[in-house]
Amino acid sequence: MGADSWLSRQSNTRSITIGLVVGALHEKLGITMETIISKGQLLFGVAIAAYGVENIICAHLGPSIRGIPWFPANAFWEYVTGIALPAAGLSIIIKRMG
């Protein structure tokens, strides 16, 4: 069995599992896929905004935090990222509500 065949089976299994879970949620609780997607967009927006707040909080810590690879090397970019991520999270949340 090749890798492509294995990946295809994994994808099919995942799709069937998601379909069964959504079907069960709809049958028992009346939850639709649109509800799941809208709640997911809300959670994603909040998470993105939280990462931005973390960037702003950690920006003032100085060189000790800059050794972490996912933080920008320059404090200026840490603040820019810290402002941009909450703005992106807010725009995702607003689009969800609109």
SSE order and pairing:
Elements: H1 3-29, H2 33-59, H3 75-97
Helix pairs in contact: 2-3
Shape: elongated
Biggest β-sheet: count, sense, barrel? none
Poorly predicted parts? none
Q: Specify the number of helices.
A: 3
Order of helices and strands: HHH
Helix content: over 70%
State the distance separating the first and last CA atoms. 47 Å
Total number of strands: 0
Give the integer mean of the pLDDT values: 76
Instruction: Work out the strand percent.
Output: under 5%
Query: Number of folding domains?
Result: 2
Cα Rg: 20 Å
Alpha-beta classification: mainly alpha
Overview of the structural elements:
The protein is 79% helix and 0% strand. With 98 residues, the chain is an all-alpha fold. The protein folds into 2 domains: 1-29; 32-97, no CATH class. The radius of gyration is 20 Å and the shape is elongated.
